[in-house]
What does this fold into?
Amino acid sequence: MELEQEEGRGLARRRVLGLLGLSALAVATGRAVAGASTPAGATTALDLASNSATAAAWGGAVRYRRGRAMVGSYLSLHGRTLTQSLALRRRQLGRDQRIVHLYYPWSDYYPAAHPEVPAEAVLMISWKGTRLSRINSGASDHHIAKMARLMADMKRPILLRWGWEMNGNWFAWDGVHNAKKPALYIKAWRRMHRIFRQQGATNVAWVWAPNWNSGPDVSWNKFQHYYPGDAYVDWVGVSGYNFSKESPKTLFSPIVKAYGKRKPIILAETAAVGHGPHTKARWIKKFAKYVSATPSIGAVVWFDTDTQKGTRRNFRPDTDAESLAAYRAMVRSSRFSG
It folds into this structure.
C-alpha cells in the first residue's frame, strides 16, 4: 500500500534521527468473547465521550483518567486481516484493545464506519496532511468539512492525530517542506479545528503529536514552535522508538515535561525493536516502569506490525515468548486499565 510505503520511509528516516539524537542528546456491542476480559476500572465508550468540564480540560471527547492509561495498537500483521489480528491479540493478552489505530490518506477515502473495530474501543485516526498552502488558502475547506461530518456521523469517541511528526523532514506537511515556517502549520491546524467544530464533530479529540526528536535539529524546527495552543489541542502525543537503544525517558520525557501539567499525554506511536537476545523484553519492562512512574501519560498506542515496507524492523511484541510475556504483564497491570 502507498500508506505503508510512506510510513516505511518515515520510520527509516526516524531511525537516522535516533542515531543523531544519541549524539545530540472487546467485544463488539454486547457479545462476550471467549478468553477476553475487561480490566477492572476500565472506562466505557460513554465515559470516554463525557462532555463534563473536566473532560473538556483533560482529553476532550476522550477522557483522561489520572493513573490509568488506555492501551491499544496499530495492527498490521502479515497474512491476517485487522479482525483476525484483533482476535489474535485478544487470545494472547486476555483483553481487548482499548484503542484501535488506523491511518487515513488525505483524500479520496471516506469510510462511513469501521465495524471491525470493537464498539467499546476508542478509534484513533492518523489522518495524513498535505502541503499547508492547500489548507491555509481555503482550497481544502470542502474536503475537511466532509471528513468532519463523516467522523461526527460515526458517533463514537475518536482521537484525531492529524499531521503528525511535523518537526521531521519526511512528510508534505512538515516545516522543511513548508518554507521552514511552523506558523503555517499552526494556522492550518486552527483552521481545521474550526471547521470540525462548525460541522458538529464534538466526538473528536485532537491529538497533536510531534516526533521525539527534530530533523533537522535546529532552533526554528523545535517541536514547541508547532504547538497550536491549549484551546486547540486535547491530547499531546509523541512518536518514539528505541532504534538506537534509547531509553523510554530519553524518548518521551521532553514532551512530558513541556506539556504534561496542562494536557494528557499519549504515546501515539511506539514499539520496541530487538538489539540482541532478551533486549526487546527488557525494554518493554523499562517502558512499563516509565509509564507507571509518569501519571500524565493517559494512553499508549503500540505500532504492532511486521509488514512495514522499507524496513526490516519487526515491531510486534510477540516475536519471542519472553517479549510477549513482558508485554502481556504490562497491558494487564492496573496502570494500563484505562
Remarks:
- The first strand starts at residue 70 and ends at 76.
- The chain has ten helices and eight strands.
